[in-house]
Amino acid sequence: MHPHPRTGQPFESPVPPGSGWPGEPATPATPQAADAARVARLAEQAESIPELNALISVCRACPRLVTWREEVAVIKRKSFADQPYWGRPVPGWGSATPRILIVGLAPAANGANRTGRMFTGDRSGDQLYAALHRAGLINQPTSVDAADGLHTNDIRIVAPVRCAPPDNKPTTVERNTCAPWLDAEWRLLAPHVRVMVALGGFAWQVALRMAADAVPKPKPKFGHGAVAELGPDLRLIGCYHPSQQNMFTGRLTPAMLDDIFGQAAALAGLSG
């Protein structure tokens, strides 16, 4: 027990490392990054995806985000009051040798911050995983929690910010502090990836930064269905974010998602 970050009252901590949470990547001995410099050092030293997942999952470098994610994990949304919350940074999910890399934005407070898996536990994720299943890229159409049996050999989902931010808006400093985690993930994944799918304009800019050495001039512009060639073996596809608003208004439809992931699978040599 320790003081709640807002009320000062005693409360149970979010899931600690090594607690037995399904898929828990860390142990009590996993080093915790307490500031931006430590994030950069640990990320640079990571030699495998499992090691990187563990390091990300215990990061405490951004005080505002730490306070928010843990507060949400304690107060909880009423509809999830009987459920445990992950309440920690969310590592990437999927294959360690993916052909397709999907770039999102940040965990949702009552979605991935609750379940511990990218795009899991909210309506955006419901749309995304259903489309991935229709494209034959994952083994089941739903993603509920870390113990639901979801599996893939073909994709990985990552984000430039690993903690749920208040109002879904990380600060520039927080984005910069978190960036080395994604840089390290790309370093380990890049030899395998043939297609990146950017979910939204910001994710598109993040993807271009990741593959900066191969970005043509003029810099490719984001658009739904836009395709950028980043060297002979890598393509970047733009996709509107499967947010509740985009899906509700029809700006993005399930058929449009199917077109994107069907094209991604074909370009990655996974279709047929």
TrEMBL record:
<dbReference type="InterPro" id="IPR051536">
    <property type="entry name" value="UDG_Type-4/5"/>
</dbReference>
<feature type="region of interest" description="Disordered">
    <location>
        <begin position="1"/>
        <end position="34"/>
    </location>
</feature>
<keyword id="KW-0234">DNA repair</keyword>
<keyword id="KW-0408">Iron</keyword>
<dbReference type="InterPro" id="IPR044147">
    <property type="entry name" value="UdgB-like"/>
</dbReference>
<keyword id="KW-0411">Iron-sulfur</keyword>
<keyword id="KW-0479">Metal-binding</keyword>
<dbReference type="InterPro" id="IPR005122">
    <property type="entry name" value="Uracil-DNA_glycosylase-like"/>
</dbReference>
<comment type="similarity">
    <text>Belongs to the uracil-DNA glycosylase (UDG) superfamily. Type 5 (UDGb) family.</text>
</comment>
<keyword id="KW-0227">DNA damage</keyword>
<dbReference type="Pfam" id="PF03167">
    <property type="entry name" value="UDG"/>
</dbReference>
<dbReference type="InterPro" id="IPR036895">
    <property type="entry name" value="Uracil-DNA_glycosylase-like_sf"/>
</dbReference>
<protein>
    <recommendedName>
        <fullName>Type-5 uracil-DNA glycosylase</fullName>
    </recommendedName>
</protein>
<keyword id="KW-0004">4Fe-4S</keyword>
<feature type="domain" description="Uracil-DNA glycosylase-like">
    <location>
        <begin position="91"/>
        <end position="261"/>
    </location>
</feature>
<keyword id="KW-0378">Hydrolase</keyword>
